[in-house]
Specification:
Layout: E1 2-4, E2 9-10, E3 13-14, E4 18-24, E5 27-34, E6 41-45, H1 59-62, E7 67-71, H2 89-102, E8 108-113, H3 116-126, E9 131-137, H4 163-171, H5 183-191, H6 194-210, H7 213-218, E10 224-229, E11 250-254, H8 261-264, H9 266-280
Parallel strand pairs: 6-7, 6-8, 8-9, 9-10, 10-11
Antiparallel strand pairs: 1-4, 2-3, 4-5, 5-7
């Protein structure tokens, strides 16, 4: 099944984004592709309670040199939302790897935003042959870096959440004055089920309880870029220094940006990502 998502490329030519549903054993996964199919692959993984749309402003800045692939993790966006499947981080990573296999991708740089960085880490651990390098954007290294919300009201207490609850929940995702989270991203939260929302949040917590990301990444030997909005209100930006335990890791703080640089300043975020991927991407023969 192919659907249009809007964007600069279709099958490597000018046109709309190519979106498709891939039927996996435990549910359909929605995938978007942009850019030339013979360019190096770059997989973008969204965070919890988000979707492929969170990367939308970044895509046109990346397709000049990459085949950009975005997926909706199970339970999110236009992917299936079953109540009887695992939402554990390694299982989400396995599905992402299977999606790349189905698309004929043999090597990819993987970038994850927020908890998407945990999925990227798990994918690299499970499929070191597939992942050539990782970029983590505002991904907390461990639970001790988490900034607890000032009030329990910051997390939706009913389902579906009210507009006010959604705005409170989303408010910590950005820091730039006057910036409003796009309504389509709030719709992505509304479309989740209460089960998938809670299961996803708990899955990320469990993964970090089992091992901090720098410890997991240090043994993989993969090139690593860590970008952090300096004014993050969900994870302490100073915690980014923990990733320096990974040999050769590049760590950069972006002043004036919060938890979602991919939304708040796509050009600055894309420029840093491209400087990294240009070196570590594997070209298709």
């Amino acid at each position: 099944m192919t659907v249009s998502d809007g964007g600069p490329y279709m099958n490597g030519r000018a046109g709309a984004t190519e979106g498709s549903l891939l039927s996996l054993d435990d549910g359909d996964i929605h995938v978007c592709q942009d850019g030339p199919r013979d360019a190096p692959a770059l997989l973008l993984v969204h965070g919890s309670a988000s979707s492929t749309r969170s990367w939308k402003a970044m895509v046109p800045l990346l397709t000049g040199s990459h085949r950009v692939i975005r997926i909706d993790l199970l339970g999110h966006g236009r992917s299936a939302k079953p109540a009887d499947r695992s939402y554990a981080v390694p299982d989400q990573a396995r599905r992402a790897g299977t999606a790349l296999d189905r698309l004929g991708v043999e090597h990819a740089v993987v970038a994850g935003h927020s908890s998407g960085g945990a999925v990227a880490t798990a994918l690299a651990a499970e499929r070191p042959d597939l992942v050539t390098a990782l970029a983590l954007i505002n991904t907390g290294p461990g639970l001790d870096a988490f900034i607890a919300p000032e009030s329990a009201a910051a997390v939706p207490s009913q389902w579906p959440p009210t507009d006010e609850q959604l705005r409170r929940f989303a408010s910590t995702a950005v820091s730039r004055a006057g910036y409003r989270i796009p309504e389509e991203l709030l719709d992505d939260v509304r479309r989740m089920t209460h089960h998938t929302f809670l299961a996803t949040m708990q899955a990320v917590r469990s993964y970090l309880e089992q091992g901090a990301l720098p410890d997991r990444l240090a043994v993989l030997g993969k090139p690593l870029l860590v970008v952090f909005g300096e004014d993050d209100r969900r994870w302490r930006s100073s915690s980014a220094s923990a990733y320096r335990a990974v040999a050769g890791a590049e760590v950069e703080l972006l002043p004036g940006l919060g938890h979602s640089p991919i939304l708040e300043d796509p050009p600055r975020t894309a420029a840093r990502l491209l400087a990294f991927t240009t070196i570590h991407a594997v070209r298709v023969d």
